[in-house]
Amino acid sequence: MQSFNRVRFQVQSEQLEEAVKLWTSCFIAAETITSSDGQEPLFSSTDCTLRLASNEGNYYNIPQRLLHILRIQLYLNKVNATMSSILNAHGHGPSDEAETMLAYLEEDFHMLEQTMEKGSSELHTDSSISRVPVYDVNVELIWLFSAKMQLQTYHFLQPVKSVTRKQGLLRLYHTAMTVISQMKAATASVDFRRCAPRYFGQMLKHAALVLMKILHSSYARMVDVDAGKQAFNLAIAMHRDMTLETNDFHDRASTILGHLWSLHRDSHFNTRADPILKLNTRLSGSLLHETLWMWRDRYSADALDTQRLGRPPRALPSIVQHSPSVATSSPGDSRKVMQPESDLGTTGGSASLQADPGAATNLDQMSIDNEQLGLPLSLNPFDMMNTYLAPDIEASGLFYPDWMWDENLTGAP
């Protein structure tokens, strides 16, 4: 091989395999973020290296589990790219073309599912693969059914009177139930609770929102409502179990899901109407973004007043992790103001959303402590930005364009 600097070098097969494995992991990490957030794929066309790596021959000797996840993500990229082109062509409105294409994509999913089942059976029967670790949790199934759930979410974008729309959304409901049950089995592992990628948490929230949407519509009469409520409660409980610190991703998710359920119940949504989405510009993430906008609009009085900030916060994550606001709290503090799991979906659920006086006193004390430290940070769960602002960082000038290197560090004589 030869690079642009005219240096010739040789790459051993082991080095090439390691590089492809790293590139595959980077691809999966990047595309799971874009797909779960409702963005178009970063790789609009399949990378030739990834295409060769995903072939049946496994040319680069990628570990079997990583190979399965790569194939799933390549398939999901195909789904999002295809549906994005169709939706853009029709102004993100319902179309017969989208309905037809969804049928073909579901057939492709069944083929992928059969390929994975065959590969999994070979993996368990082949004892010669000693370098592949054995896990108690079948993580590949979570990836697989998460992709299936994102595919079936596109049925929300079909014409309301379409027969295939109703059938597709009912299949989506049962897929969401499956994802939650798989996640429940996975969270029994302590390592999974601590180390699971954020994508799994996003899919858990997605599944809970699917249940909430179907259960508050005319389709509720065609599903087991009690089982759906129980699964929704379970999703909130799992987010709490996966919480590492106050106001982290899972902590916020558990709070928002509880509020959204009460909002749907107390606002007397038309349970005789078909489930629809008013926001349909975020591909399979449209459901997530519509409900988050609904939550933000309802609790706008508690939102952060960005006028007093002057500019968006630019503190680094490492600084946030060591900020006094994090050190003064723990996951146990946030659970005092959360809705009990058993109350969700019941007649007394909304009353449980109010914080008890003891918890409010603790939050007030934390705010006082932060002010004494010169850090007016709030632990308000609705304040989605203030926790990330470290005021004393501004004095250093590290995060603003007028900051320059010291002349002693330029290397000039």
UniProtKB/TrEMBL annotation:
Biased amino acid composition, Polar residues: 320-332
Region span, Disordered: 310-353
Signal peptide (from-to): none
TM region positions: none
Keyword terms, alphabetized: DNA-binding, Nucleus, Transcription, Transcription regulation
Gene Ontology cellular component terms for the protein in this record: nucleus
Record's subcellular location: Nucleus
GO MF term set: DNA-binding transcription factor activity, RNA polymerase II-specific; transcription cis-regulatory region binding
Top-level taxon of the source organism: Eukaryota
Protein's UniProt name: Uncharacterized protein
Organism: Knufia peltigerae
